[in-house]
Amino acid sequence: MPTALVTGITGQDGAYLSQFLLDKGYRVVGLMRRSASADVIGERLRWLGIIDRVELADGDLLDLSSLIRVIEACRPDEVYHLAAQSFVATSWHQPVLTGTITGVGTVNMLEAVRIARPEARFYQASSSEMFGNSEEPRQNERTPFHPRSPYAAAKVYAHWMTVNYRESFGLHAAAGILFNHESPLRGIEFVTRRIADGAARVKLGLASTLMLGNLEARRDWGHARDYVRAMWLMLQQDTPEEYVVATGQARSVRDVCRRAFDHVGLDYQEHVIVRPELHRPAEVSALEGDAAKARERLGWQPEIGFEAMIAEMVEADLARHRARMRG
Ligand code: NDP
Ligand code: GDP
User: Fold this and answer.
1) Is 315 a catalytic residue?
2) The whole model's pTM is what?
3) Which of 148, 208, 256, 302 could form a disulfide with 282 if both were Cys (CB 3.0 to 4.6 A apart)?
4) CA–CA separation, 234 vs 121, rounded Å?
């Protein structure tokens, strides 16, 4: 039975990836940082019904010795490095923390693997945010990076350090440049989840409005369940490389509002209010990915469409609020 170590196991992707790997027969060990709210933090794993099937190991990206200890103890065949301060808006308020966790934290993981388990395969969670406002209408593996937030800058550093450890030390280190991917387990501060939750609240009479920032921003939104499969496929290749993972179709924040409110029979224009303070200091106006390489080399393609995904998210938030109202 192969062993996978997943950092960021309590996050959206960590939860779906763990479920995917368990179904494939892996032993899954998750790095989990100590928290006074550990019971709540396991919520996503509980939601998927897998919390009792994964092993949780105590460690923090900022503490290299804890990472080495965890790797020595579980001896992983594959390491999926997903942990990060992953929210762009917060990265302007906490730029040093974001650089430390998302950037230097990745180097700590690479060091831990190099020292304790150099034969393990390593996956780095790189991001389409690294492209910034690209001049190319669709971004692929050859598109230059121009990060537009402390988060994106930290990811560029982590990305190049991953390539660097491959070229310097021969680590089997791959990087997925994933475009935005969502699900009912997406963090509540991200725009699709805010909208799904907002539409559910308005429908149930818990709120009458939803405050948002830039409705014209465009993103290439896919489903997390599809995207974790691409991570695994990358580590099954003999040669570690970079891959863009995207649907190839961008939509606006306004499109998400329309879809989510339509789903509950409401008109978003009567409920969504644009607030200037929710605009970002530097916006990435549009991202749309060209995943031809992943399609051709990995045989990967997305299976869950945009409309089905938004419907699933709104339904999940309706169910969550109904359960709270009953309880
Ligand atoms: P989440 O924000 O949902 O999860 C982040 C995870 O990192 C959590 O498990 C969190 O733990 C953990 N973490 C944060 N800081 C530390 C630390 N110091 N030590 C140990 N663990 C830590 O992210 P997603 O699942 O959405 O994304 C996974 C990865 O993919 C991230 O690196 C993200 O930047 C990247 N990415 C995501 C995209 C997306 O659209 N979702 C697109 C492209 C890249 P805790 O629960 O304790 O906070
Ligand atoms: P990101 O692409 O990783 O930053 O993912 P987000 O879901 O946080 O943001 C996607 C886009 O939605 C960005 O261009 C935001 O500016 C835009 N957006 C508009 N209103 C909001 C909002 O209220 N919250 C968030 N998170 N994003 C918003």
Assistant:
1) no
2) 0.98
3) 148
4) 10
DSSP 268: G
Cα–Cα distance measured from residue 85 to residue 98, given in angstroms and rounded to the nearest whole number: 6
Q: pLDDT tens-digit profile of 238-269?
A: 999 999 999 999 999 999 999 999 999 999 99
Q: Helix, strand, or coil here: 283?
A: coil
Q: Is 194 in the pocket of ligand 2 (CB under 6 A)?
A: yes
Q: What angle do CA 138, 91, 229 make, to 5 degrees?
A: 50
Instruction: Say if residue 315 is exposed, middle or buried (CB neighbours under 10 Å; 0-12, 13-18, 19+).
Output: middle
Rounded CA gap, 321 and 280, in Å? 29
State the Cα–Cα distance between residues 123 and 280, nearest whole angstrom.
30
User: Burial, 5: exposed, middle or buried (Cβ in 10 Å; 0-12, 13-18, 19+)?
Assistant: buried
Tokens representing residue 135 in the block: 């001049």
Ramachandran bin of 27, using left for φ above 0, alpha for ψ from -120 to 50, beta for the remaining angles: beta
Residue showing tokens 């690294």: 130
Report the candidate in 127, 179, 181 with the shortest Cα–Cα distance to residue 158.
Answer: 127
